[in-house]
Amino acid sequence: MSFEVFEKLEAKVQQAIDTITLLQMEIEELKEQKENLSQQVQQAAGSTDALVRENQQLKEEQHVWQERLRALLGKMEEV
């Protein structure tokens, strides 16, 4: 009778070990995914910063061109 109990206990222990092993593998996969996502977030942040700088530069260029155009229109009105 006790042999059956030990067999059941052994089966449960083996099942627990298998479950723990699978969970550890899942944790490793999730860690890798997290690392990849963190890198993607950093790249996206860098791209965003670059786009913000470019946008600011283009706005400044647009402002300069608008001022030049206003100046030319002012000269044309004087003529």
From TrEMBL:
Its main location: cytoplasm. The keyword Metal-binding does not apply. InterPro entries: Cell_div_ZapB. It is found in: Cytoplasm. Keywords: Cell cycle, Cell division, Coiled coil, Cytoplasm, Septation. It comes from the Bacteria. Residues 6-61 form a coiled coil. GO terms for cellular component: cytoplasm. One of its GO terms (biological process) is division septum assembly. Belongs to the ZapB family. Non-essential, abundant cell division factor that is required for proper Z-ring formation. It is recruited early to the divisome by direct interaction with FtsZ, stimulating Z-ring assembly and thereby promoting cell division earlier in the cell cycle. Its recruitment to the Z-ring requires functional FtsA or ZipA. HAMAP family: ZapB. This is Cell division protein ZapB. It comes from Erwinia sorbitola. The gene is zapB.
